[in-house]
Amino acid sequence: MADHIKIRPATGTWVVRAGGAVLGESNRALELTEGDYPPVIYFPRDDISMVFLDPSEATTTCPYKGQARYYDIVAKSGTIKDAAWSYEDPKPEVAEIDGYLAFYTTKVTVEEV
Description:
Layout: E1 5-9, E2 14-18, E3 21-26, E4 30-34, E5 40-44, E6 53-62, E7 66-75, E8 78-86, E9 100-103, E10 109-112
Antiparallel strand pairs: 1-4, 2-3, 2-10, 4-5, 5-9, 6-7, 7-8, 8-9
């Protein structure tokens, strides 16, 4: 793994909310820290209501994690574009995040409860 990326179990229970709905809650989340960036909470897909998420056309590539696929959140209040992402085939050094989703905290609420 790149020395500047650390992955560990997130302590406690985490919830993600958008458009007035709880999208998921997990006590199996992971916390990924990368360099000087704020920590990112990754939720297991099994703990997220995937019915609210639609794959978008957007992708990005990280030299350390691989290609990210993005998801729109479909809420009563409207669609939140590219609000979540996952590395569906992550590089071996970060294999722990395979099957996990992360969310932009500028677009949804991610918090420990």
